[in-house]
Amino acid sequence: MNALNFTAFQWIAAGTQPTLWVLGLATALALWGSWLCGAVVVAALWRHRAERAYLCIVAALAGATSAIAHAIALSLDMPRPFVLALSPAYIEHGGRGSLPSTHAAVMFMVALAFLLRPRLRALGVPLLALAAATGWARIYVGVHFPLDIIAGLLLAGVIAAALALVQWCVHLALPRTGGASGGKDAAGSLWRPS
Q: Distance between CA 37 and CA 108 in Å, rounded?
């Protein structure tokens, strides 16, 4: 697996002679992709009032995902590409463990959580693309291996699946009401997809 990871890194990364415009794009995404993702969450909080409680849960899970990814990376202490002198680091970055990528884990988790909600799916697709582009960029600028990004995606998938499972369990456990409410769920839209 390590040989495949190194080979994929060498194929994707800028190396010592990057294409300047690609490096500029990758640097912008590597540094600002997560901030753009956060801005989309804030915009969704403002525009989708019925989803605010759910979005607050997603924000809390993003924080938990970050903490979990950091803890795993510290315990595994896998070196970054620039630490192994496989490529320069084109952005300033510490040399601590890189597996899984915290950026990838958080951004993919937010995108997947958006995809779980019908009212938020239109934003979930671009968030998923942004997470993938940011993952590519962090490989290109030399601070992550491809496996780091994949591990971040897997961690995000586990956390998003747990969120979906909790939603499903609560959906089954909460009573439904009919009549005057027109068949709407008693619990509103916090745990039930709208």
A: 10
- pTM score of the predicted model: 0.86
Nearest to 157 by CA among 35, 55, 65: 65
Q: Which of 161, 174, 38, 45 is nearest to 107 (CA)?
A: 38
Using CA atoms, how far apart are residues 149 and 169, in angstroms rounded to an integer?
30
**Tens-digit pLDDT string for the chain (194 aa):** 688 999 999 999 998 888 899 999 999 999 999 999 999 999 998 998 889 999 999 999 999 999 999 999 999 999 999 998 888 999 988 888 889 999 999 999 999 999 999 999 999 999 999 999 999 999 999 999 999 999 999 999 999 999 999 988 888 887 765 444 444 444 445 555 55
DSSP letter for 2, please: H
- CA torsion, points 65, 162, 60, 122, in degrees to nearest 10? 100
| Residue 25 burial (10 A CB sphere; 0-12, 13-18, 19+) | middle
CA atoms of 1 and 50, how far apart (whole Å): 45
